[in-house]
């Protein structure tokens, strides 16, 4: 897993899972704490995430809200969009361009 960027926009790539969760959490929390306005997470280079990785995203979302910021997801891959819909988190998280639920293949 890698994260590059600053306190305004971060690109997350590789696997966001139990092995990378602690490092990702540290980077995301620092970015939230050090900036103002929206924090964009570009997930277009993310290969996969597990429940722990999704928990890191949700934790960053909550922290951003407490800091008066908004976490915005960009470039969410289709398989991860399906997971957000299945868990109904697409209703909570800000997703750039939204998710076309009707366009997602059924699982």
UniProtKB/TrEMBL annotation:
Residues 1-107 form the STAS domain. Pfam families: STAS_2. InterPro entries: Anti-sigma_ant, MlaB-like_STAS, STAS_dom, STAS_dom_sf. Belongs to the anti-sigma-factor antagonist family. This is Anti-sigma factor antagonist.
């Amino acid at each position: 897993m890698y994260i590059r960027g600053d306190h305004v926009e971060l690109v997350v790539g590789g696997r966001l899972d139990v092995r990378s969760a602690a490092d990702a959490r540290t980077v995301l929390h620092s970015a939230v704490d050090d900036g103002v306005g929206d924090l964009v997470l570009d997930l277009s280079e993310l290969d996969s995430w597990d429940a722990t990785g999704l928990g890191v995203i949700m934790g960053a979302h909550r922290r951003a809200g407490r800091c008066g910021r908004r976490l915005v997801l960009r470039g969410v891959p289709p398989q991860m969009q399906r997971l957000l819909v299945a868990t109904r988190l697409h209703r909570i998280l800000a997703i750039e361009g939204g998710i076309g639920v009707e366009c997602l293949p059924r699982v």
